[in-house]
Amino acid sequence: MLSKTMFILASAATLVNSQFDPTSVPYATRQAWCNSQTSACPILCLQLPGASGTPTSNTCSADTLLYDCVCSNNIIPNASEYSQTIPYYTCTETNNQCVKNCNGDSTCQNDCRVKNPCGAQDPKRVNITTTAKPTPTVSETPVNTLVNGATGAGPRMASVNMSHVYGLCVLVGGFVAGFATLL
After folding, report:
1. Distance CA 69, CA 37 (A)
2. Helix (H) or strand (E) segment spanning residue 57
3. Rounded to an integer, what is the distance from CA 83 to the centroid of its chain?
4. Of 122, 118, 128, nearest to 167 (Cα)?
5. Which residues are registered as beta bridge partners of 67?
6. Is the pTM of this model over 0.70?
7. Rounded to 5 degrees, what are φ and ψ at 131?
8. Which of 21, 67, 9, 69 is nearest to 45 (CA)?
């Protein structure tokens, strides 16, 4: 089963890499991208029903930007719908290179970004002021299904926006630190 997964991932990565040359990005940047990808994989898995935060496979090669993220329930999350993942970074860098090649033509530069959007395109909007528990929206890709995340042909997955939680923690921490210095 795992060898079948590796073939599918290699095929998907070949499709991605046929559109993006990893050597066009400095090696140190590619290493940072891989670190982000392998850090994101467990978090992506936690969003899938029946999966733990411990993937059965979580690798990334800075040389080729080929990555593998298989969750404990044998499902591959659609990493193209999230930031801090290889598909997001390669999409963003492709857009940056496109803009650079426009030589200042603003219409061309706009087309680079508009015609090749990166990350989640249709996230579920949740009213965060309600007291009802929202139902999470997830997209599952069985191991035996090829997802072409680079072109957006895969299923859409809702982005998780935790900024309000982090903001509240920073705010409370600031108040506590402020009061502590007054004492």
Report:
1. 9
2. strand 57-60
3. 4
4. 128
5. 60
6. no
7. -95, -10
8. 69
Q: Find all residues with CB under 8 Å of 36, minimum gap 6, and list them.
A: 84, 85, 89
Q: How far apart are CA 76 and CA 71, in angstroms?
A: 6
Side chain identity at residue 124, one-letter code:
K
| 13-22 per-position pLDDT tens digit | 434 444 789 9
Three-state DSSP at 30 gives helix
Q: Could you report how far apart the first and last alpha carbons of the chain are, in Å?
A: 62
State the CB neighbour count (10 A cutoff) for residue 132: 7
Query: Are 70 and 51 contacting, i.e. CB atoms less than 8 angstroms apart?
Result: no
- Choose among 92, 85, 80, 147: nearest CA to 116: 92
Helices (H), the chain: 2-17, 27-46, 86-101, 106-114, 163-182
Query: Is the C-alpha dihedral spanning 2, 11, 40, 162 positive or negative?
Result: negative
Residue listed under structure tokens 């090669």: 61
Q: What is the Cα–Cα distance from 154 to 141, expressed in whole angstroms?
A: 9
Alpha-carbon distance 109 to 97, whole Å? Answer: 10
Q: For the segment 71-94, what is each residue's pLDDT rounded down to a tens digit? A: 999 999 999 989 999 999 999 999
Contacts of 108 (CB under 8 A, 6+ apart): 98, 99, 102
